[in-house]
Design brief:
Blueprint: E1 17-23, E2 28-34, E3 39-45, E4 49-56, E5 59-63, E6 66-70, E7 75-78, E8 84-87, E9 94-101, E10 108-110
Antiparallel strand pairs: 1-2, 2-9, 3-8, 3-10, 4-7, 4-9, 5-6, 5-8
Length: 116
């Protein structure tokens, strides 16, 4: 058992990206934040499934070319091998919970020049 306080962790890119509260041994759990007009490069996972639960703001999560406009209280599940891309096209920051399981140290495959 352990306890983590979000304020003791940092976002990967300063004011955006994932802030991992747990990495392994069986899953990852993160708070993800994007400022207006920020995005996260398209990618997929070979083994891990990924979930997002929207806490605040709005975000477009593109999965295999389909744009999913997500709002607070909504949840999206992304299967392994589904290409996904997140972009905050809106005027407010977005905050969401992300889980990835089963834990893999290296499992992300980035997609260059992604279009949808």
């Amino acid at each position: 058992m352990y306890i983590v306080d979000e304020k003791d962790k940092e976002y990967r890119f300063g004011d955006s990206g994932p802030k991992y509260l747990m990495k392994g041994p069986r899953m990852n759990l993160a708070i993800v934040q994007f400022q207006p007009k920020q995005d996260f490069k398209a990618h997929f996972h070979r083994i891990m499934e990924e979930n997002f639960y929207i806490l605040e703001g709005e975000v477009d999560i593109v999965v295999d070319g389909v744009v999913n406009h997500m709002k607070p209280g909504q949840f999206i599940h992304i299967e392994p091998n589904e290409v996904h891309y997140c972009i905050n096209s809106y005027d407010q920051p977005v905050r969401m919970v992300s889980t990835l399981a089963p834990f893999q140290e290296i499992d992300k495959v980035e997609i260059d020049n992604y279009t949808y």
